[in-house]
Amino acid sequence: MQRYIGLDVGTKTIGVAVSDPTLLFANGLVTIKRTKVKEDIYKILKIIEEQEVSLIVVGMPYNMDGSVGPMAQRVMSFVDLLKRETDVDIVYADERLTTISAEEVLIKQKVRRENRKEHIDKIAASFILQSYLDSK
Q1: CB 28 within 8 A of CB 6
Q2: Single pTM value for the model
Q3: Long-range contacts of 102-106 (CB under 8 A, 24+ apart)
Q4: Which tens digit of pLDDT belongs to each residue from 79-99?
Q5: Which of 8, 62, 82, 102 has the largest count of CB atoms under 10 Å?
């Protein structure tokens, strides 16, 4: 059984989504509160093992003009460190506007503003992963 995970890497949190075994659907799994990079990577490695992950899809926060800005560089640095700890393949997917889309979903579901933070990143990660799955 193989699964993919999607990551929405931010400065304070990392949203994680997981695919179903048929690689058709993405579901938000968890939002990891960032602490130390080593601990963040350890938590991701644990998910990789538990979910039997065969591919990691990382959201790349390109600028609206498609260029690589400071946040995208931070994501690439984090991915470089993650690559040192796992043999699982990692690919990038454009994540522009996924957080806005995730917030729209939460608003439509009438989730209170103060409760949105705990869900928004894992929903954004599911959009990133679902977009990748749909493209394959």
Answers
A1: no
A2: 0.87
A3: 102/127
A4: 999 999 999 999 999 876 666
A5: 8
